[in-house]
Fold this sequence. Notes:
Elements: E1 4-9, E2 13-14, E3 17-18, E4 21-27, H1 36-41, E5 50-54, E6 71-77, E7 81-83, E8 89-92, E9 102-107, E10 123-140, E11 148-164
Antiparallel strand pairs: 1-4, 2-3, 4-5, 6-9, 7-8, 8-10, 10-11
Protein name: Nerve growth factor-related domain-containing protein
Domain Nerve growth factor-related: 93-165
GO molecular function: signaling receptor binding
Amino acid sequence: xxxxxxxxxxxxTVPSQVLPMYEIYGFSSSxxxxxxxxxxSGAIDDPTIRVMKKSAASVKSLPHYEDVCGIVIxxxxxxxVAFEKNGSLVEVQQDSHRNFFMTSVECEKQTNxxxxxxxxSMYSSECVTVYEYRRAYVRAxxxxxxxxxxxxxxxxxxxxxxxxKGVRMLVNT
Length: 173
């Protein structure tokens, strides 16, 4: 006997246009699957499938979101010293001739902070700041030489890294 499935397809809001929403009730079978174009045109003649248009007002909105990792955003991040690609500490040119600045994003807590909302029994999680190298004019710290073109390491985002925990079996002895 076929299993009854309830499938809800969501609407997509496009500027100045709302596409219709559908709920399709029917039996799970490849021969009975119909496309949305058939559903929209009313061409579904299978008595086991009922198509209903839903208005956007009848659909509940999603609950308020929660951040997986807390972040700190600095709109005018302009470092005086930074690390170059080779790992050396350099001075970044910040004067009337050249001024390096950008918007930086870092994880709120810098050391081994677990991600919020992750199932800890299945995954180990960690909030990690991701860095990129950006072009800036630099020189060795304390040097009186001219600044030269280089790349400095800057924080650009925070992401949750997941690692699947191994399957653990409890053995009673």
